[in-house]
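Example with several molecule types.
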Amino acid sequence: MIIQRLTELYRRLSSQPDVAQVGYSSVRIAYALVLNSAGKLVGVEDLRQTSKNGKKFCSFFNVPQKANKSSNITADFLWGPSGYVLGFQEGDDRCDEKFKAFKEKAQAIGGSLKDSGMKAVLSFLEKWSPTSKGFKDLDGQSLVFKLKGDTCFVHDRPAVKEQWLSQPSPGKLTARCMISGTVQPIAMLHSKIQGVPDTQGAGAQLVSFNQKPFQFYCKHQGENAPISESVSFAYTTALSYLLRHPTMKRVIGNAVYLCWSDKPTSMESTMFNFVDGNTVFDYSADGVPKKKKNSVKPEQGKVVIKSLSDLAPPKKDLGTRFFVLGLSGNNSRIAVRFFKDSNVSDLYENLRMFREELKIEKQFKEENDLPSLWLLLNESVSRATGEKVPDRHFTMTFESILKGLPYPSEFLPKILVRARVEKKINYRKASMLKAILIRNFKKEIPMILDENKTDTGYLIGRLFAVYEKIQMSQGEVKKSLRERFFSAMSSNPGCVIIAVRNLSDYYFSKLSKGGQIYFEKMIGGIMGKINKIPGIFTLEEQAEFMLGYYHQRNALYRGKEEVADSKEE
Amino acid sequence: MARGKRNTRIPKSTTAEIGGFMKYIIKAAGPFACFRRPEFSAERISYDVITPSAARGIFESVYWQHSMRWVIDRILVMKPIKHFEFKRNEVSKMISVSEVLNHFGSKKPSGPCPGLITTENREQRFNLILKDVEYVLEAHIESVFSDPQASRHPIIFERRIAKGQCYRNPHMGTSEYPADIVRLDKFPKSPLKGIVDLGLMLYGIDYMRDHRPLMFHATMVNGVINVPHHSSKEVLG
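Resulting structure tokens for the full complex:
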């Protein structure tokens, strides 16, 4: 199914100029060697581009299809790294053999051609003796050939192209293709795909049978799952395209997720923005936001999102089929770990729900409206000790978001532990707790303080915030109520409620008459709704406590003016 | 003590197929299932639903003889398709038969006996399997070659399934995922609704023609997959 969808994607993309045609691969090339018609090297053209911060990077070009390396030395036709093309590469002592193989391949395929470009290359290779003198820059880089005066490369010249495409394909077996259902020549080795995390630099195969335990009935390589050469080319090219695309791919955890649709839709560019969010503010160690300098990198596909409605797909896109594929690497193989076949409206609904559930009132004015998934999940680990969020948490959460399923149950305890250790609750933790309560426990949580809510955990959280406020209004204390009792109150209130009350009564008595009336009313209102203060809170109640505390605290700090008014009375 | 023949008076079958094409319905359920896709076999990625060959395997584990063949007619998927992923340690090599034969065949075997040290040949393989599966399978028996005892097959099968007898534990694709099976009288309705195109699925392996895979186009309509007969044009291979 997956390969079938990728083949359909290739068909859609094949008209685009940056997508390789049959018989060609898209490869990063650094330099072009410029030859005159006699075969003498007259110059070196730098094909690299400069990025914003001054770094040079190679762009992709279409070159004759990369040969599958069945042995260690396999030359390509008219392109390759300097070890093959010029016979030198630092640290490589087989360059002589490599150069020989390259020369032989060029001779074998293009030897009969009368094309001037091909002739120039062949005479250059004849006369060239591998030396690195004067070509230190080219060491290890990918090179192509160009005839002086031409705008295209030698391998793009019409006669050379025709010769290359007419080469017989190496596959000898013809059988029924498992994907298309028609009888075709079968691919023995599938092309390698680069760009998946945890794979070798040279690339890895999605379909491979490189070791004996993976082979059936003593069949070799591609015989184990007959897939035709054209399907193999199509799906590998489509995958490479997706893995290079800035917006249709995102690395989350240790997997890379790719997305595409039947027809071009806006969702292809915006899907991962739901997860990236809008990281305008960075946070200092104590959690106070400070503005980031250059937070948006459009070349990585991240954009500034003013609001969620920016990301909504237009009506005409809603019924289009949409696919999400998750891949992770295992050295020379790629494993499929997630595949979702649905449509744009379903996916948008799930992504929108994810963001809606996270919405909660901000603690400080400058907070990221849409914190990224990375920021959110980092609330469950200890930043001070450098603890990292395990990769599978990222992937599991992302997959829960896409499928609309409950979050992994390990999260709630982790976030609660962090809140108890840090003895405070910030905006991002509150968002995550709200989302988990809504999705996993099917509760309704308001965005700001709800005075009518009667959940015990919520009310006790509110109560604690009020007690804290009473103490804080008396000025600085050595060890505040929060520092002493936050963790205990949030997990086993029944044990500490008396101590907390006694402490706050002491500070209560120091308040002005107006303040006392004000707070008494507030406490009365909360206590009136509490039936019983339990000895131990369940995880759900602990989360409610945190949210009640957060909401009430925000409300109290906003309502400073009210206390001043009542004092004057 | 004289041993007499047991009374095996059984009415002769008058139709060409055994049991008069009587359809047997089995419900198979299990916590996990893995019906391996051939193209992703280096990692174990499962098809979304049970393959006809795995369904045949469940019937065959209860009762099978050389002269008969189980033919699956319909598959009903009772529960929504859920996936489960994990990595597992396996090995990257197989012990070579010729090595072992040479070692024991020679008069003075030199060196250690060829074996496989798992710690040296460890390979982690990624598994994407199905979770919480329940299928209802409908099949009938066909005869492969003429067998005078052929008319006994349905009776023996019915007795065995009623008692819960089987040659090996019925399983969901691979033997790590056992299946609980029970015989049903009627083909039920599935709670799943809608039409799902499952693409080309593995029908089975053609052992007579160099073990090639046979494919068919699977479509699930309200949870029901109609499996074509192996001789029909719909089975490609």
